[in-house]
Amino acid sequence: MTIVEKILARAGGKKKVIPNEIVMAKVDVAMSHENADVVLKSFQEIGVKKVWDPEKIVILFDHRVPAESEKTATTHKRIREFVREQGIKHFYDLKEGICHQILPEFGHCRPGEVLVGTDSHTTTHGAFGTFATGIGGTEMAGVWATGELWLKVPESIKIIVKGKFRKYVSAKDLILYIIGQLKADGADYKSVEFCGPAISEMSIASRMVLTNLSMEMGAKNAFILPDEKTIEFVKSTTSKPFEVVLPDKDAEYLETLEYDVSDLPPQIACPHSVDNVKPVREVAGLKIHQVLIGSCTNGRLEDLAVAAEILEGKKIHPDVRLLVIPASRKVYLEALKAGYIEIFLKAGALILNPGCGPCLGAHQGLLAAGEVCVSTTNRNFKGRMGSPDSFIYLTSPATAAKSALTGEITEPL
Amino acid sequence: MIKGRVYKFGDNINTDDIYPGRYLSITTDREEMAKHCFELAYPDFLKTARPGDIIVAGKNFGCGSSREQAATCLKYFGISVVIAESFARIFYRNAINLGLPILIAPGITKRVEHGDMLEVDLEKGIVKNLRTNDEIKTIPLPSFILEILSEGGLVPYLRKKLGSGEKGGNK
Description:
The complex is a heterodimer.
Chain A: H1 3-11, E1 22-26, E2 29-32, H2 36-46, E3 57-60, H3 70-86, E4 90-92, H4 99-105, E5 114-117, E6 131-134, H5 137-146, E7 148-152, E8 156-162, H6 171-182, E9 191-195, H7 197-201, H8 204-214, E10 221-224, H9 228-237, E11 255-260, E12 267-269, E13 277-279, E14 290-294, H10 295-298, H11 301-311, E15 321-325, H12 329-338, H13 340-347, E16 350-351, E17 372-375, E18 391-394, H14 397-406
Parallel strand pairs in A: 2-3, 2-5, 3-4, 5-6, 8-9, 8-11, 9-10, 14-15, 14-17, 15-16, 17-18
Antiparallel strand pairs in A: 1-7, 12-13
Helix pairs in contact in A: 2-5, 6-8, 11-13, 11-14
Chain B: E1 2-8, H1 15-18, H2 30-34, H3 44-48, E2 54-57, H4 69-77, E3 81-84, H5 89-98, E4 102-104, H6 108-111, E5 117-121, E6 126-129, E7 134-137, H7 143-151, H8 154-162
Parallel strand pairs in B: 1-2, 2-3, 3-4
Antiparallel strand pairs in B: 1-5, 5-6, 6-7
Helix pairs in contact in B: 4-5
């Protein structure tokens, strides 16, 4: 069996499962952010008084922090009351950061487990060998009530990655390239497994970029096969026991794809879809107005480190606004200690509090009609970050930082 | 049997198109959500679509965010069924869980035009184009999904299953 077949078989209490079989899977971790309010309404309508297990539910605020409106303040208040009432053990109020950074930092990601979240980029946590997928609010209400949900066992695509990245080319460039090849529905309903020497070399943070963005080719979930690095990280964050699940040697895959990153140039996803991917050089020279470095994709310490390396001792272009959003309070503190924050401030950046920032168009730096933003986030849909007549280009932190200096889309080297 | 007029879309209609992120702070007022369907990306929808209309779309309808508002706004607008070449998985599940009927019909965009009248038999999974008399087969829904839909969505389905209805719940 593949890794997804093994995990779902176990979660469904079966010895063996095959693709397209439906299992009732027991959930180990159930995460919601502000949309816990949507979940709450459906949960109350179901009429069950108590959640199935207050220790397995994680709730946090990241999408609109601090509250950008009275409406959101009321939502936050209602959820805090619910958390208290139900005794939800793992609640992270607005100070901690983005859900897809907080879950691993606080020890909620373990190999072999089933994790569901009311956020599409929940696929991120497959970087720890967890089966992790996004669901909607009403479905989560069902999980809160019963602790389980139906899942169709997906077919698997294996992606083997070889080679060594050139300087300033990273996991973001690789996954954008893959999405450009496979397209927005290329992995619809499928489980994606990343493996190979280039993946083994990658840091935990870089691996999370791959699983995070796998959502943008439709993947139900994505895995990095757990190795020593994974185990060491997970053990440093949780004392709860776990069992590493790996695919069998004779596991069957729908497809096996191979990529070599050695000659991969920096990539960019152009408006208005994530699969509209080109080498950066093909759009180089386009004038930009805003640069955003952050998000659940690229707001981690290594992302800030590469941006700081490029921006050190320099000033950003006078026509550009540079927004930097550390993914979490912990990342922010580490960046502060490493001197990155000072470099950003001296270069002319605005540092925002950890959270989703303007990525989903809620607040903190939206775009006017005609404006162009280079962003390290994961979606460039029309109107996503403000005006429907603005333009979002997705890149790596290195390309974003370099473009902030020149005022136009620029290759980092 | 569902009968309605077609409102047609292309491929890869994402959930930001269907329900703009700026309105995600609306979390509980479903009638209010319905006022923002396709508001930024396809502003004509709110001017010309009517309750009872059927959405016909290309591949990967509902890709992107997990926001349930994308399915909720269509349901409360009065869309009677969404038929697409294929769906993104979270939207597909959300629609079922909310009791918004949904059908996968490979090839449908070539056989149906904007404004056509359709007759849809959900249980048999057959779509009839009343303009052309063309009968289009869809991929049948698994029986337990039909059961959730016939109860009106996951909430009423679970209320029945868990016996947690009006009498104050079982727990």
